[in-house]
Amino acid sequence: MSESSSSSFEFYSAQSLNEGLCMGALMKKVLNAVSSHVDNELETLGLTYAQWFPLRHLSQKGSSTALSMAKELAVDAGALTRALDRLEAKGFISRVRSLADRRVIQIQITEKGQLVAQQVPKVLAQVLNAHLNGIEFQRRTAFIQTLQELAQQADQIKADQLEEDRFKSAHGVNPPFNCPTPSNFS
C-alpha cells in the first residue's frame, strides 16, 4: 500500500470505538497511569507532576510572568497561579516586582527550586522506563515515532482550525447549517 493511500484510509468506525480501540481513551489511560506514578515518585522531592511544568519552564528560562508562562505552557492561568502559589510556599520560586514596571511581577526559580528541577529528569526517565518495560526496543521506537507524528498532525489540525476561524471572523462567514431534508437522509 502506498503512503498516500494508507494515509487516507479511515481506521475508525463507530463499532471500533466501542471495542476499546479508541486512541484517545487509550492515550488518556496511559497518561493517567504515568501521571499518577510520577506524582508518587516526585512526592519525595516535594513536587507534583503539575508543579513540574512551571518549575521546568523557569529552570530553562530563568524568569517569566505568569501570563506569558500560561500562554507558553498552554494552561489555564488560574490553575497555573495555584501551582505557582504552592511552589512559592515550598521555596522553589519567588515573585519579584519589576523595577521597570511596578505592575509586572516576574517569577524566578530559586536555588532550591533549581536543585529540585535538576533531579526530576532522572525520576521521569525511571517512570517512563517502568511503563515501557517488557516492550521490545523496536516497538518502543515505533511508538515514540507514532506519537511524534500524531503530535505533528494535531499541531497541523489546530493551525488549520485557527486559520479557518480567522478567515470566518474576517469575512463574517459562518459555517453552513445543513438542515435534514429527505434528499440528504441517505
Short description:
65% of the residues lie in helices and 6% in strands. The protein has 186 residues and is mainly α. Strand 2 (93-97) and strand 3 form a beta hairpin.
Number of strands: 3
Helix/sheet category = mainly alpha
Radius of gyration: 22 Å
CATH topology of the largest domain: Arc Repressor Mutant, subunit A
CATH architecture assignment of the largest domain: Orthogonal Bundle
Largest sheet: 3 strands, antiparallel
Provide the β-strand percentage band.
5-15%
- Secondary-structure element order, as H and E? HHHHEHHEEHH
What does it look like?
It is a single chain. Helix 4 packs across helix 7 (111-132). This protein is flat. The two termini are 31 Å apart. The chain is built from 8 helices and 3 strands; from the N terminus they run ααααβααββαα. It folds into 2 domains: 37-133, Orthogonal Bundle (Arc Repressor Mutant, subunit A); 135-171. By secondary structure, it is mainly alpha-helical. The longest helix is centred in the last third of the chain and has 35 residues, at 137-171.
Name its key features.
186 residues, mainly alpha, Arc Repressor Mutant, subunit A, 2 domains, 65% helix, flat
Layout of helices and strands:
Layout: H1 3-7, H2 14-17, H3 23-42, H4 49-61, E1 63-64, H5 66-73, H6 77-89, E2 93-97, E3 105-109, H7 111-132, H8 137-171
Antiparallel strand pairs: 1-3, 2-3
Helix pairs in contact: 3-7, 4-6, 4-7, 5-6
